[in-house]
Design a protein that fits this description.
This protein has one helix and 14 strands. It is mostly beta strands.
Length: 232
C-alpha cells in the first residue's frame, strides 16, 4: 500500500513537472537593462541624484507575463527590487500587480506588519491606432504606503500619454489623494509632466544603441528633471 502511494505521488509530481515545463517552453524569456543618468519615478527622484543601473527579467506566455525589475545606484545607497505579474485582457487593456521594495532595510521576506513592501494594482490602456492616447490608473493597495496616523494612504497615480511624433511622447501624471510616503502630496497634485524622445544611436552598419531623453517637471514639488537613458 505504501509503495502504491509513493508510486502515485511520483507519477503525479512527474506529470505536473512535465506540464509546467511544457507550458514554460511555449512562452518567451527575456532580459535587459537600462542605464539612466538619474532615477526619477513618476516625477519623484529616487535616492541620490546619480546614475542607476536598472536590470529586468521577464517571462511571457500568451496573456500572462511575470517579471522582476530593479534599480541600483553606483554608491549602493539605493537598491530596489520589484516583482510583477500582468494579465492582458486584450491588445489594449491590461492589469498589473506589483510588489515594490525600495529600502532593503529589513528582512526582504517580511510581509507582516511593518513590512518595507508596497503592493500596487494598475490598469493600463495602450490606445487605439486611430487615437493613440495611453492611460494608466495605479493604486497602492497595501504595505508600507501609510499616512502619518498609520492608516493606509491608498496612493493613486493617473497618467496620460500621447505620441506627437514616431519617436516622441508627451505625458502628464498626477497623484489623486494624500500621499506623504510615495508622492509627497497632500490631496491632488500634478507630479509628472514632460516629454520623452527616443533615438537609435548608430554604432556600426549592423548595430545601433537605443537611447532616450526625458525633460520633466513636478509642479507639486516645484522640481524639474532631465534624464538620459540607454537601453541594453
Amino acid at each position: 500500500m505504501i509503495m502504491k502511494k509513493v508510486f502515485i505521488k511520483t507519477v503525479f509530481v512527474l506529470a505536473f513537472s512535465l506540464t509546467a515545463l511544457s507550458a514554460f517552453s511555449q512562452g518567451s524569456l527575456s532580459t535587459g537593462a537600462d542605464i539612466v543618468s538619474s532615477y526619477v519615478w513618476r516625477g519623484v527622484a529616487q535616492g541620490s541624484n546619480e546614475p542607476n543601473i536598472q536590470p529586468s527579467v521577464s517571462y511571457a506566455n500568451n496573456k500572462i507575463s511575470i517579471g522582476a525589475w530593479g534599480s541600483g545606484n553606483f554608491s549602493g545607497s539605493l537598491k530596489e527590487f520589484d516583482l510583477y505579474a500582468t494579465y492582458a485582457f486584450s491588445s489594449q487593456f491590461s492589469l498589473t500587480l506589483t510588489d515594490y521594495n525600495w529600502t532593503f532595510s529589513k528582512d526582504y521576506f517580511n510581509y507582516k506588519k511593518g513590512t518595507d513592501h508596497i503592493f500596487e494594482a494598475a490598469l493600463a490602456y495602450t490606445g487605439a491606432e486611430s487615437f493613440p492616447l495611453t492611460a494608466s490608473l495605479n493604486t497602492m493597495i497595501g504595505g508600507a504606503d501609510k499616512k502619518a496616523n498609520g492608516d493606509n494612504a491608498y496612493s493613486t497615480y493617473v497618467e496620460l500619454g500621447y505620441p506627437v511624433a514616431p519617436n516622441t511622447k508627451v505625458f502628464c501624471g498626477a497623484s489623486l489623494f494624500d500621499s506623504p510616503a510615495v508622492y509627497g502630496t497632500t490631496g491632488f497634485g500634478i507630479t509628472n509632466v514632460g516629454i520623452k524622445v527616443n533615438k537609435a544611436l548608430t554604432i556600426t552598419d549592423k548595430f545601433s544603441l537605443p537611447v532616450y531623453g526625458v525633460v520633466g517637471f513636478n509642479p507639486s514639488a516645484s522640481k524639474a528633471f532631465l534624464v538620459a537613458g540607454i537601453t541594453l
